[in-house]
Every structure is written in structure tokens, then in C-alpha cells.
Amino acid sequence: MKSSVVNPWEVSGEINYEKLVKEFGTTPISDKIKKRLEKTHPLLRRGIYFSHRDFDKWLAEYDKKKKVSVITGRGPSDKMHLGHLVPFLVAKSLQENFNCEVFIPISDDEKFFVKEKLSFDDAIKFSEDNIIDLIALGFKQGKTTIFEDFKYTKIYNYAAKIAKRITYSEAKAVLGLKPENNIGWSFYPAMQAAHILFPQFSEGKHMSVVPVGIDQDPFIRLTRDVAVHKDFNFEKPAALHAKFVPSLTGDPKMSSSEGGQIFLTDSPKEVEMKIKKYAFSGGRDTLEEHRKKGGNPDVDVSYQYLKFFFELDDKKLQNIHDEYKSGRMLTSELKMILVDKINSFLKEHQKKRELAKKQMDKFLLH
Ligand code: TRP
Fold first, then answer.
1. Which overall architecture, per CATH, does domain 268-354 show?
2. What is the mean pLDDT of each run of 10 residues along the chain (366 residues)?
3. Phi, psi at residue 145, to the nearest 5°?
4. E-assigned strands of 18-112?
5. Residues with Cβ within 6 A of ligand 1?
6. Which of 118, 134, 187, 212 to mutate to test the pocket of ligand 1 (most atoms within 8 A of CB)?
7. Is the domain 5-249 a CATH 3.40.50.620 member?
């Protein structure tokens, strides 16, 4: 079998999530924690989030009425597609369920260093565009702080304090830096650690949780180590780790480069075309066979998207599952359910984007 690589800047090969939990030394999400998440977003309660660090401790602090917060960031390398929303939908859901502050750093510096072709001006342009999407998701005003590395340069002060306490060999071991990488890559981990500790730098010692894709865990490890250095004496931040959301075509990770992604700015026609043309189907080859043997919802990408993003009602989801599996529902019908759901989400989202453009100042640090 091809060996897999999972780190912030490379994800390849077959991904075995159980093995990652062991290798990274994280903790699977227990039934007890799942119970606490029953009313949260499907991404949290239906299994895309599968592993954590110290999230039980974060919950315990919340129960003791201590301050807790959420921090997760965005690397703006492109306009945003559905898969990019994962940590932010979760951050919003945690904000609603636990009434806490949310912090969202935008790492345009990271993408500028790492993406050979991304120009400085484009990195800033994507930041602005992505920030509009994030505000449009409906985070609470007054409880949500967004900042962009290239513009909120005070973050550099915190990053410098952190950089002093991380050696080159630590960063290299944790993140797999290569000799041919430009030196921006080697400093950036101090920036992301500064993002993750920003809630404590600005509001004092408390527990934060970072919802992220499991590929980002190396940053979490590095940050947890440096957090307890005597220069800072912070709490180690908790983490919630997500699996990758499959692309429409069924590849394990949705990436912008392959095409066939649903962008948040797509028109209803584009959405319908993409789902019909690309969405990997768990249906059978012929109508007759499908009616007889039924479809396979577990591999069907349309069903997966309904499960993780769009069908919030457990009973309705179960019904779609059963109808499809029995062969009573056809792939074309399943796809149209998804198309309608995505299009009504995007219609609202695109309206809210227009409003968001006028609200930037209420969320952004300068
Ligand atoms: N590096 C992340 C990515 O590429 C984005 C990011 C920046 C982030 N700062 C963060 C994620 C802090 C979590 C916490 O997607």
C-alpha cells in the first residue's frame, strides 16, 4: 500500500484515521462527549469530527462557568468552496451552544509563502473575499474577532515572542520542513501558534478549542508545548479534529485545484450541472438493478453532503437513507434533493455576502 503523508502542507496517499489517532497521540471522541454535542452542527454530531485533545477539559471549564473560547483560521489561497466551511460551521455552532467568543485569523502570509504562484496582491484580495464569506455565515457581532496577518501586524509581536521559544529542529520535525522551502515556511509556525494563543494573549489565561482538519494537528502540538513555557504560562489549547470532506468526485479531500467543487459564489445552474455531472454515485448501473439491489449511501457523495451539511433533521435523513438503500429512490432523485438544498443555502449566503460587505468593521481588527 502507498504510504500516506498528512501534515499541514501535504496530504496524500490512503488515509487511515485510526492510525492517525495513534500516530499523533490524539483521543477519539467518546460517547460521553458526543452526548454533549447532540444539539450541535451535523459535522460535529454525525462523525466528521472524530478526534480531540483536551476537549473534555474545555467542557469542564465551561461547566464551571469559566471563560472558554473558540479559535480557528483560514488560509486564503482561493475563493471559498463548501469544504472550506467545515471548521467555521463548527465554530459557529460552538458559539451558539456555549455562548462563547470566536477568533478567526486569516493567514495570507502562509499562503503567500507556500503557494509558489500566489502573488502578494492576490493573497490580500482572497483574504478580503474570504472574510466576506466568513462574516456572511452569521457569527455573533461583538463576540467574533477576525484579523488578517498582513494587515493586523500586531500579531507579529506575539509571533516573535513565540518564535524565540521554538527551535528550528522542533519546527522541522513537527512540520516536515524541507531544505528547498523558502524561509517564510520556517517562521510561519510561530504565526499560527500566535493565532492559536491570541485569545489568551489578548484576554488572559483560559481554555480555547481549535476545530481543524487533522492535517493541522502538528501546529496544535507545537502550540501546546510552547503555551506552557514560563514566558507565557498559558493553558494548553484544546483541539477538535475533522476528517477530510470528500470532493464531489469522491476523492478523500476536497481541493480547489481539481475542479468540480461547489464555490460559495456559484449560480443555481452551475450547482445543478456540477452535482449531476460530478457527484460520485452509490447507485447501480441500470435502473432495473438499482430497483432490485438498492443504492449504497455510504459511498454516495450526495448522501454524504446531505448527512454532514444540509439535512439537519435526523428523521428526514434516515428516511432518505432508507429510500435510497432500498432502491425506491434513484440517484437522480437523491441528487435533486441535494441540488435544492445547496441552492437555497447559497441563495441566502449570497444575499448575506452583500450585507457582510457593510459589516466588515464590526468584526475586523486593525
Ligand atoms: N493553516 C490553516 C490552513 O491552511 C489556516 C489557519 C491559520 C489556522 N491560522 C489558524 C487554522 C489557526 C487553525 C488555527 O487551513
1. Orthogonal Bundle (1.10)
2. 78 86 95 95 94 98 98 96 95 98 98 97 98 98 98 97 96 92 96 98 98 96 98 98 89 62 95 95 95 96 95 96 97 98 98 97 96
3. -125, 125
4. 27-28, 49-53, 68-71, 101-106
5. 8, 71-75, 105, 107, 110, 192, 195-196, 210, 212, 216
6. 212
7. yes
